[in-house]
Amino acid sequence: MKRLLNILVFVLIAGVLTILGLQFHVNRFARGLMHSKIDSIQPVYTGIVLGASVRPDKSLSPILQDRVDAALNAYKAGKFQRFLLSGDHGSRNYDEVNAMKDYLNNKGVADSVIFLDHAGFDTYDSMFRAKKVFEVNDAVIFTQKFHLPRAVYLANHLGLEAQGFEADMREYSANNSLKRREWLANIKAWFELNIEKQPTYSGDIISITGPSAKSHDK
């Protein structure tokens, strides 16, 4: 019994150290590639906005609205030329990407500069598809600070030359739980990279330098 207890304690300690180690590794990698001021962003061709929840009335949640607004401000400042809106459009009744597109259209952004990734079901899929399906080479990623290190880490390890922008414009009610979730999400990201996981959907190439209409469904 004592030996079994020692083994369980060792496994627990090893697991905690692994989680802490990966958290440190991901954050250290991304630290120099993250920006909190638009002026510090190096100009690139593509701005990637990562999806988040959309309300039943198709309006953007506060987290998602802040991501889109941050990207819009950077676009107006000349920091990128094309939007890639990547999110969950896994059913007819739930659509993050067109909600983002409609929001940008209402702000005066033309369809011609907006590309939609309907199968960005998680951060790994979004980054993989940005590189392989949309042929993005350099990008700035827009999401909140709690999520940004993992997004930047994944993007660069999947072949993108990516920076990140912290789209934190307010306090979020679930902020602490979201931060805790990232600890396990970093393990998932490391695992996905090391097994060279394929995305849920791959699909035909829709180059970010070509016409955006190929990515639109309405």
Automatic annotation (TrEMBL):
Residue stretches making up the DUF218 domain: 48-182
Pfam families named in the record: DUF218 (PF02698)
Keywords: Membrane, Transmembrane, Transmembrane helix
Stored CDD domains: YdcF-like
Cellular-component GO terms for this entry: plasma membrane
Residues annotated as transmembrane: 7-26
Protein name: DUF218 domain-containing protein
Organism expressing this protein natively: Nonlabens spongiae
